[in-house]
Amino acid sequence: MNIAVNTGKVASSFYFIDIIVSMKNPFLWQLLSVALLSGCTVNPNDGKPEFLTNAPRLTLEGRQGFMPGQKLRFGQYHGGVNKSWVNAAGLGFLVSTLADDKLQSVKVRIQNADNQSVSINYLQSCSWDLASVLIDGISRPTDFKGKIHVNNTLTSFSEPTKIPYKKQWFNVDISYLQSDHRYTVTLANKVVAEARLQVYVGGMSNEDYVWIDQTQPEDIKLMAATLIAYAVTYETPDCKS
Fold first, then answer.
1. Do residues 227 and 170 lie in contact, with contact meaning Cβ atoms separated by under 8 Å?
2. How far apart are CA 229 and CA 129, in angstroms?
3. Confidence of residue 23 (pLDDT cuts 50, 70, 90)
4. Under a CB-based contact definition with an 8 Å cutoff, are residues 226 and 110 in contact?
5. What is the end-to-end Cα distance of the chain in Å, rounded?
6. DSSP type of residue 127
7. What is the C-alpha separation between 136 and 125, in angstroms, rounded?
């Protein structure tokens, strides 16, 4: 393919395009590839924890892709998250759209290699009031009710970020640097679990990573694993009317 080069800018542009597409110029292909991918380089620090630097990195599988969150696995831990909408009478989604109040029902369950498990069930309601609908056109989440099931013990909690366990409280950071996709679980002001989501690993791929503090007792590690799964799958319900 030959294009005559004239003095005008248009002819010069066509000449440049002709050079790029020519297979006789592989070096220019490489330059073009580098230019296009320069903004998508892999940063090794993206796959490192901020707090649990001595803990092994676990790849979190199942949060992304088809039916996200329903089957989760990281290291020895596996389980899933089920989410659904019901109305106050426990009816299905179609009926709930006609009800005054909506409830998002979520169940998180994580099991370890010894078949020990922890379950978290919680409801988030979307109740509406006339002012919010008229002004903003939306309903707002107004209530949270949770229960955690550990070793045949059922405990209630009312704050999504504070989870009771025995005589202690776990704090779950479900919004910590959320735009940076980082999440933490703390116990007695110490980070016991950490997650970084959507870490770019090259090409068109990204991965989710989890770290669990291995110095903790087994029951605390299982709690930490369950709560980090809860954190990375938590969503404020969509309460648009």
1. yes
2. 33
3. very low
4. yes
5. 60
6. E
7. 18
